[in-house]
Specification:
The chain is mainly alpha-helical and 382 residues long. The chain has 18 helices and three strands.
């Protein structure tokens, strides 16, 4: 497979069309044979070979999917309904393809060409959505691995789906139920929700933006309610972390992954909805709030309380994300004056100009763009 991979990367364009098609069909047929053989596919010793073959086929698809293999996505989605192993592996292929396309678009296409290509492929992307929906709607009858792959696939292609499909209420309901009822999929589901909270609303009317944002906010409220009452149940994340670390160290990695996914979903929500939250008059301390806060402020407070708990978890990634969030949030609340202004960075950066006088210490780095402030955990908690 390494030889095939190197050959296709370096010499694919030297082949004539018939040779390309023959080689493609041979490799696809070989992959289907491996995957459809249940004993072969479920043997962990064979996963490296299958994964390598997946990579080779995606390399071919990346070269041909806009020309001679435009139905690649359809060829993966349609047969997936016939066999669970084939379905799972085809979703792996779709995720790999998405990663390759993202690199391709970022490095090779202008925004206009990327938009045209997205429109051209919209029908194929809807087929991916339908496949995800089919599996998620039957979450009680499919395997855990298949459901996890469907959730990962949904999150990966989210930015390509029409927004009315992304925010389909049945899909949202099923996603939230997965958090509550299927603990094995909880981490991936939280990652998916985090992507939903941060979805970009482009080329929409203001009325549509308001409707979709209200739907996201309702989803956040339900999400936090489930976390409060059925998952966290008044337990402190930092205390639970220490308990698991001491009593069940073998489960610590899973708990860290779940906690970090929950943390990032909260961060995405607050970053995407800060324009609503900042209207509250903190300086005057009034209780006059906009309709958003009046309805949802208990859940907003709950989310912020969780972000505070993450500061006391002895995990570098979780702690750093929490520190970055609070620096960003503090800037928004206490410094930002223009509701239309933005700060698209997690780090607190002050403008460097002649009117500012800062004490120089080891936490402050001067550069051309300003002053970059960094804190250790102990310094921040002080």
């Amino acid at each position: 497979m390494n030889i095939y991979e190197a050959f296709i990367k370096e010499k694919w364009d030297l082949l004539d069309n018939d040779s390309k098609l023959n080689l493609r069909n041979f490799l696809v047929g070989l992959l289907i044979k491996f995957v459809m053989d249940k004993n072969f596919y479920e043997n962990n010793a064979n996963h490296f070979l299958i994964n390598k073959l997946n990579i080779v086929i995606v390399i071919i698809a990346k070269n041909e999917w806009t020309t001679t293999w435009q139905n690649f996505i359809s060829e993966l989605c349609n047969p997936s309904k016939s066999d669970p192993n084939l379905c799972e592996n085809n979703m792996k292929l779709l995720i790999l393809l998405s990663e390759e396309i993202n690199v391709f678009w970022r490095n090779s296409l202008t925004a206009k060409k990327a938009y045209e290509l997205r429109e051209k492929m919209s029908k194929a992307f809807i087929e991916v959505f339908n496949l995800c929906q089919l599996i998620m709607n039957n979450s009680n009858s499919v395997s855990k691995n298949l459901l996890i792959k469907a959730i990962q696939l949904f999150a990966e292609y989210m930015n390509w789906f029409p927004i009315n499909l992304i925010l389909n209420q049945e899909i949202i309901k099923k996603t939230l139920l997965n958090i509550k009822d299927l603990s094995s999929c909880r981490t991936e589901t939280m990652k998916c929700l985090g992507n939903l909270f941060g979805i970009k609303m482009k080329n929409l009317s203001q009325n549509d933006i308001n409707n979709y944002r209200n739907l996201l906010i309702q989803m956040y409220q339900t999400f936090i309610k489930i976390m409060d009452t059925q998952i966290v149940k008044d337990k402190n994340f930092a205390d639970q972390y220490k308990f698991i670390e001491n009593k069940y160290p073998e489960k610590l990695t899973g708990y860290e992954n779940m906690t970090h996914s929950f943390e990032m979903s909260l961060i995405n929500f607050f970053k995407s909805n800060m324009s609503y939250i900042q209207f509250f008059d903190f300086a005057e301390g009034t209780r006059s709030v906009n309709p958003f806060l009046e309805s949802y402020i208990p859940k907003i407070s709950s989310g912020l309380n969780y972000m505070t708990e993450f500061l006391f978890i002895e995990n570098e990634e979780i702690f750093q994300a929490a520190v970055d969030f609070w620096l960003w949030f503090s800037y928004k609340v206490f410094t930002l004056r223009d509701p239309n202004d933005t700060l698209d960075t997690f780090d607190l950066v002050f403008e460097n100009n002649n009117n500012n006088n800062f004490g120089v210490n080891n936490n402050i780095n001067f550069n051309n763009s300003g002053i970059h402030v960094k804190y250790t955990k102990d310094q921040y908690l002080q």
